[in-house]
């Protein structure tokens, strides 16, 4: 049986990754010169973390380098395990390219081992839902190649739409390729953002007011979701529990209510880029879901 590896950007609760049998590589972040990992989701105090960011705390993040990937891949390969790595979008981080380099090194050093990497073109549950599906397919008896093919197709059809309180954090870290296109928050204008066809974060619209921005996310879901009744969709928020409940109610009252909704607090690395107040919605959609 092959081993599924992902990273903490997948934003999955630790008990869930353990139950699914996922190996998780941690991203790190630095505050005032002290470095932390985002691996222990149970110990992460998201409420305090995002309140401190609102108060001006600066968080620095770094990619996972080739050696770190090697440190995690090689012990598995040495034990004879094939590896499927479910990665954060190459459109927002150079980490994926480092994972590909590490996979090539493993293939050269262990010629009998198969290592495949999937660029999810997403982050948070846009990555995590794919990792969970990979685990389900593996447990169902699918081969590594079959799982790779199905999950890569899922990534292409993964809708990722979100709204933020402010574009300041995405602008500061260069994570939004067209952030200047949005007016900002002076007139309570809320930007609508998405993961595009190559996994970059781009703005695709703007509305006035928080509630309308959440309604716009729900409309994107209703317009593009596929097979909703059999689907677990995802919501990640950066300390916005009430607005999350509002969005859940909209989704459950829609024409295509989902089978289930997985809700998580944004983990600190991705969360520090999108900023407090962010709410993101993730679902498998039609062929146009990334081009809305």
CATH topology category name of the largest domain: Hypothetical Protein Tm841, Chain: A,domain 3
Percentage of residues in helical conformation: 25-40%
The Cα radius of gyration reads 18 Å
Write down the secondary-structure element order.
EHEEEHEHEHEHHEHEEHEHEHE
Largest sheet, in brief, is:
6 strands, mixed
Give the spatial strand order of the biggest sheet.
Answer: 10-9-8-13-11-12
Corresponding CATH architecture of the largest domain: 2-Layer Sandwich
Envelope shape: globular
In terms of per-residue confidence, which ranges show pLDDT below 50 for 5 or more consecutive residues? none
Gap between N and C termini, in Å? 38 Å
Number of helices: 10
Task: Indicate how many domains the architecture comprises.
Answer: 2
CATH C-level class of the largest domain is: Alpha Beta
Overall mean confidence score, pLDDT: 92
- Give the structural class: alpha/beta
How many strand units? 13
List the topology elements.
Blueprint: E1 3-7, H1 14-20, E2 22-25, E3 28-31, E4 34-37, H2 46-54, E5 60-62, H3 66-78, E6 83-87, H4 95-109, E7 115-119, H5 125-140, H6 144-156, E8 158-163, H7 168-173, E9 189-195, E10 201-208, H8 210-224, E11 232-237, H9 241-252, E12 260-265, H10 268-274, E13 279-284
Parallel strand pairs: 1-2, 1-6, 6-7, 11-12
Antiparallel strand pairs: 3-4, 3-5, 8-9, 8-13, 9-10, 11-13
Helix pairs in contact: 3-4, 5-6, 8-9
Question: What report would you give on this structure?
Answer:
The chain has 292 residues and is of the alpha/beta class. It has two domains: 3-27 and 64-156, Dihydroxyacetone kinase, domain 1 (Rossmann fold, 3-Layer(aba) Sandwich); 158-284, Hypothetical Protein Tm841, Chain: A,domain 3. 39% of the residues lie in helices and 24% in strands. It has helices at residues 14-20, 46-54, 66-78, 95-109, 125-140, 144-156, 168-173, 210-224, 241-252, 268-274; strands at 3-7, 22-25, 28-31, 34-37, 60-62, 83-87, 115-119, 158-163, 189-195, 201-208, 232-237, 260-265, 279-284. The strands form three sheets. Strands 10-9-8-13-11-12 form a six-stranded mixed beta sheet, sandwiched between helices. The chain starts with a strand and ends in an 8-residue tail after the last strand. The relative contact order is 0.16. The model has no long low-confidence stretch (mean pLDDT 92).
């Amino acid at each position: 049986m092959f081993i599924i590896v992902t990273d903490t950007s997948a934003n999955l609760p630790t008990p869930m990754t353990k139950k699914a049998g996922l190996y998780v590589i941690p991203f790190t972040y630095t505050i005032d010169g002290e470095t932390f990992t985002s691996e222990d989701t149970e110990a992460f105090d998201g409420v305090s973390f995002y309140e401190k960011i609102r108060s001006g705390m600066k968080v620095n993040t770094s990619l996972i380098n080739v050696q770190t990937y090697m440190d995690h891949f090689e012990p598995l390969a040495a034990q004879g395990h094939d590896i499927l790595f479910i990665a954060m979008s190459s459109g927002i981080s150079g980490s994926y390219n480092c994972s590909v380099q590490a996979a090539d090194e493993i293939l050269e050093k262990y010629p009998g081992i198969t290592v495949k990497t999937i660029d999810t073109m997403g982050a948070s549950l846009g990555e995590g839902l794919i990792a969970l599906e990979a685990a389900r397919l593996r447990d169902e008896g699918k081969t590594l190649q079959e799982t790779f093919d199905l999950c890569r197709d899922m990534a292409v059809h993964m809708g990722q739409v979100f709204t933020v309180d402010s574009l300041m954090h995405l602008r500061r870290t260069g994570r939004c390729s067209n952030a200047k296109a949005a007016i900002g928050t002076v007139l309570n204008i809320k930007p609508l953002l998405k993961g595009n066809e190559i996994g970059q974060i781009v703005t695709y619209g703007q509305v006035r007011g928080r509630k309308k921005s959440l309604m716009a996310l729900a409309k994107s879901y209703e317009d593009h979701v596929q097979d909703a009744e059999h689907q677990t969709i995802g919501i990640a928020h950066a300390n916005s529990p009430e607005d999350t409940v509002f969005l859940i109610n909209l989704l459950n009252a829609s024409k295509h209510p989902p089978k289930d909704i997985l809700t998580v607090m944004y983990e600190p690395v991705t969360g520090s880029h999108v900023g407090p107040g962010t709410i993101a919605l993730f679902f498998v959609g039609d062929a146009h879901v990334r081009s809305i």
